[in-house]
Amino acid sequence: MIKILKEVFQLYIDRSDFFLEILLQHMAICGIAIVIASIIGILLGIIISEFKKTTSPVLSLVNFIYTIPSIALLGFFIPISGIGDKTAIIALAIYALLPMVRSTYTGIETIDPAVIESAKGMGSTDYQILYKIKLPLATTVILSGLRNMVVMTIALGGIASFIGAGGLGVAIYRGITTNNAALTVAGSLLIAVLALVVDLIIGTIEKFIKRKWKLN
């Protein structure tokens, strides 16, 4: 194990340009997928919390998608969008919807009804209640869902190379196909570090918001 780790760090030094390139590719692919999933997921979460008849079908659909193996979902879109980054982004964004939809819906639904009734009694419109009360109060729950979704997406991005996309999965794929354990570990380790760093950043933001709410 120590020998492999030495080889891994030597690879980072000898092939720093290669690893920097695929790291940036990984961040770009996952970043775009995360932004798309966040926007669509939050919007869907708001819709199903405001229009109760849509709750069951929407949650059932995103739950069903989540049960599909990630590699199968990537393969499903190849005939539609071809191989490469585009297909990886689409599949990762769709796969990431469930945590965002569920956390947004849960965050809004767990707000004390008395708070909503008080706002209505003061003459607030539905839009004002949503924008100024529901979403701010649901922020920490939404961020918790975002945190889980981001880590999951960064990890799943590692298999995107199997459909011709870039990213850190390229190192893993090449390592597997050439029986190069050091290269496989090098790619996997960078994915883990990237996920941990992003998780730490979002966690810090989440704690800051919670602290701010307590002070207020």
TrEMBL record:
Residues in domain ABC transmembrane type-1?
Answer: 23-202
Specify the protein name.
Answer: Carnitine transport permease protein OpuCD
Could you list the residue ranges that cross the membrane? Answer: 22-46, 58-81, 87-105, 150-173, 185-205
- Gene designation: opuCD
Its subcellular locations are: Cell membrane; Membrane
InterPro entries to which the protein is assigned, alphabetical: ABC_transp_perm/SBD (IPR051204), MetI-like (IPR000515), MetI-like_sf (IPR035906)
Membrane disposition: Multi-pass membrane protein
Q: Of which family is this protein a member?
A: Belongs to the binding-protein-dependent transport system permease family.
Enumerate the SUPFAM superfamilies for this protein. MetI-like (SSF161098)
Q: What organism, scientifically named, is this protein from?
A: Terrisporobacter mayombei
Which is an annotated Pfam family here? BPD_transp_1
CDD domains linked to this entry: TM_PBP2 (cd06261)
Coiled-coil residues: none
- Keyword field: Membrane, Transmembrane, Transmembrane helix, Transport
